[in-house]
Amino acid sequence: MPEWETVIGLEIHVALLTKSKLFCGCSTEYGALPNTQTCPVCLGHPGGLPVLNEQAVEYSIKAGLALNCKINFNSKFDRKQYFYPDMAKNYQISQDDQPLCSQGHVDLEVEGKKKRIRIARAHLEEDAGKLTHEGDLVGAPSSLVDFNRCGVPLLEIVTEPDISSPAEARLFLNKLWNIIRYTGVSDCKMEEGSMRCDANISLRPQGSSELGTKTELKNLNSFRAVERGLAYEAQRQAQILAAGERVLQETRLWDVEAGVTRGMRTKEGAHDYRYFPEPNLPPLKLDASWIERVRQTMPELPDAREERFICELGLSSYDAGVLVAAREVANYFEEVLQHSAEAKAAANWVMGELLGRLRKDNLEIADCPVSPRHLAKLLALQEKGRISSKMAKGVFEEMFNTGKDPEDIVKEKGLAQITDVDALEAVVEKVLSAHPQSVEDYKGGKDRAFGFLVGQVMKETRGRANPQLVTKLLRERL
Predict the structure, then answer these.
(1) Would you state the pLDDT for residue 268?
(2) Domain tally for the chain?
(3) Which of 11, 223, 348, 403 is 20 to 30 A away from residue 121, measured at CA?
(4) Which residues span the domain enclosing 439?
(5) How many CB atoms lie within 10 A of CB 337?
């Protein structure tokens, strides 16, 4: 769409990994029976008064620091008035004009150039419950409500409209997901709803500085859904504008199966929510020492880790980027190195054989049956010439299937390479005697004959001969 510029801003809701809810002591554990993790506070009963969860504040500070935000010493909670069928008190405790975190940023690599996506704010709020639409239950279309999730602490991260394409939105969301997971404040499991994304998108003529009318796509629960939903919506808006019509400001839903967005309701402005300060919670006041204590617990974040892998370990930018793209993979790789493995070889095995097999079996690296210590042992066996690279792959498969030590597998299966010179010289003599024509062909300048002879030696030794030694002995003998 060369005549239009796409403008996108994201609102990401991250469920914090506290054991109890934001304003009460109910459990936040995922998967409990419906409505078994509730109390008068999260059910909105009269007289149920909220008490702020200190751990949720600390996790929010930690996330804010990771996103380069300013942590505000003074913030407050507000009531957001809205009809919530899955929130019994019919308002949400959120933060309006005084958020906990603001003025942050995330840097992306877009087409070889650095691009900064500004974060307007990151504020604490409580989650709503969950509606399940069951169809015809009582003679009419019906829904069931589960209040277990109601009151779970959320950090809502709001970007400025700095994103220029659906692909860029996916790239940003992926990086944000990784940063938050590195901090440990959320597991960001989109399939469980612990990370959800709303996306605002508008179009404007190329070169214009005035924003167009935006639509909002609600509750996009995968990176692919974000990209596909925004791509469809950009095309839909372009067709409307090309026809001389006006885009309506509305909230739309992404229909995954049909691959289209559908109108849900007209979009509310902030004034429609009738915000006012939450009367049952005092203003939140932080001191510098608390923020500094949280700062001291910050882990090494993805960008810093990637730079270290490049500068200290000598990895390529591509390899380092793949390894740090998930915290657990980077941790596994570094643990392999702690057992004296060489960085490049370890990187190749982790990115190739290991991740490939995990994808094939649909496993997370936390469930990998091959320990970092065992993988390092396998690499050592290959490096010392005790097994060939082909053998190593076979041993790895056995390790993955059984969890056994690679040295035990090599012994049990008799896979150790033959490196005894006298033994190999005897095999070389036998092969040369059995194939005189190939010897003559090699002497006549036919290089392919040499490869044939190497293959015959390997066949005689059932692939256990050291290839480099076989090559050396054959050339000397010929």
Answers:
(1) 59
(2) 3
(3) 223
(4) 421-477
(5) 15
